[in-house]
Every structure is written in C-alpha cells, then in structure tokens.
Specification:
Layout: E1 4-10, E2 13-18, H1 20-26, E3 29-30, H2 33-39, E4 45-47, H3 70-79, E5 85-87, E6 109-111, H4 119-122, E7 133-135, H5 146-154, E8 158-160
Length: 161
C-alpha cells in the first residue's frame, strides 16, 4: 500500500511524494502522544523511544522538566484499549504509575529498556493479562525476584533483562 502526501503533474510526468510518517501512523503505529490521540482506538503500537513527550511540562506536577508519565497516562486512558505494543525505552523513567497500563487490556509487548527503573517501580505491571514480552534490560536496579519470574513464566511471558 502506498501512502501519498501530494501529487503534482510536471510536463507529462507524474510526481509522487512519499511521506513515511503518514504511512507509519496510518498503520496504527504512533510515534508521539499527538499521533496516539489522533489515531485513538485504532492505534495498535506506541513507540516513544527517547521521546520528548515523556518530559513533563505541567508546572503543577512535582516532576516538571523531568521524565514523567502524566501526559502518557491521559493518552493511554483515552486511546490505549487496542494497543498491543508499547515502547518507552531510553526515557530516563524511574517510576511507572501502577495504573498506567490499566486501560491497555490488549498489551502483548512492553519495552521499558534503558530507563532508571527498579523492581519496585514496575511492581504490579506483570499482571497485564495478554502480555507476552516484557523488556527490562539496561535498568540499573532491575533484579527480578524468583517469585516474579515464576508468576510471569506461568503466564508464558518472556522477560528480557
């Protein structure tokens, strides 16, 4: 399928400009919170690897100017229902609110690589029912307990640390 941004006629030639960002979001993949909001429940993947969308600019938030999940939480509540994949790698996150993925009932793959998360910071997120892959590598304090591995293994969730 070809996604076109604009078409122009020049002499007898047809000039077609390809816009990869349109193609990407048209396939249900959002690379920003704005795209996620625009796609709504048609979004199936959210890739916010090294994203400026994660930095908080709400002056009422205690994490203003730092990585924060407050805008992400609002977007996921509205548009997270059909997301199957979320990548929050390389964002310096040190906290993931327990309710962050509450509305992401179809989430199969969650990548939290290369942040500043600890086992306590990801706490209850292993309860995501359809989760198949959890990527946690590159987080300095990430040593999962045997109990946590066992819970994930019972549900056939692969963990990459």
């Amino acid at each position: 399928m070809l996604f076109l941004q604009s078409i122009a006629h020049k002499s007898s030639k047809l000039i077609v400009q390809y816009n990869p960002s349109c193609a990407y979001s048209s396939l249900g993949v959002a690379k920003s919170l704005a795209e996620l909001n625009r796609l709504g429940e048609t979004a199936t993947k959210l890739h916010l690897d090294s994203s400026k969308d994660i930095v908080c600019n709400d002056i009422q938030c205690e994490r203003v100017t730092k990585p924060c999940a407050c805008k992400l939480a609002v977007a996921l509540e509205k548009s997270g229902k059909n997301l199957r994949e979320v990548d929050l790698s390389n964002n310096n996150l040190d906290v993931i609110p327990e309710s962050l993925f509450e509305n992401c009932e179809n989430l199969e793959r969650l990548s939290l690589r290369n942040n500043k998360l600890t086992v306590e910071a990801i706490g209850k997120h292993y309860k995501l029912r359809k989760l198949k892959l959890l990527e946690l590598g590159g987080n300095p304090g990430m040593e999962l307990t045997v109990e946590c591995y066992n819970r994930l293994a019972k549900r056939n969730v692969k963990v990459r640390v």
